[in-house]
Amino acid sequence: MCDEDVIARVADLFGVKYQESKRKKTGRRKSHKKAWVVALKGTRARLLMQQLRPLMGKRRQQQIDKALASYDPTLTRKKLGPKEVRKIRQLLDEKNLTHQEIANRFGVTRSHVSHIKRGTTWSRTS
Predict the structure, then answer these.
(1) Among 6, 27, 85, 97, which has the minimal tally of Cβ within 10 Å of its Cβ?
(2) Nearest CA among 49, 48, 47 for reference residue 63
(3) Is 1 helix (H, G, I), strand (E, B) or coil?
């Protein structure tokens, strides 16, 4: 959303922080406005989806159902140390396993493995 004041209120309501969207920074024209994002994750996101589901249309309800079905609370709490991250990078470099296979091996989400590969978490200096 481009209205920072609205996002700030939503973030305050959820008790989380907000930030400028990273996607919009790369390819954004000078004439484009800044975009702001707020994220709710884990159990809090699951509870909000369950509350909002009856208010949504059929397509959104299906998306919520899919998200809720894939939610695994055991994966959201896993903390990786430097040794595990080095091993994940080694497995990624070998390219014989998918991100999902690596994630399953370490008890994290596939997106966590992708973030490690891109350096958005655990930068290469770690």
Answers:
(1) 27
(2) 49
(3) coil
Give CA–CA dist 116/91, Å, rounded.
12
Whether 15 is in a domain gets the answer yes
Output the pLDDT for position 48.
92
- Residues 119, 121, 123, 126, Cα dihedral to 10°: -140
What are the tens digits of pLDDT across the range 19-70?
A: 988 764 555 566 678 889 998 888 888 999 999 999 999 999 999 999 998 8
Q: Same structural domain for residues 65 and 95?
A: no
- Contact status, residue 35 vs residue 7, Cβ threshold 8 Å: no
Range of the domain at 91: 82-118
For residue 7, tell me if it sits in a domain: yes
pLDDT in tens, 63-96: 999 999 888 776 655 678 889 999 999 999 887 8
Does some domain include residue 109?
Answer: yes
Q: What is the total count of domains within the chain?
A: 3
Angstrom distance (rounded) from CA 101 to CA 113: 10
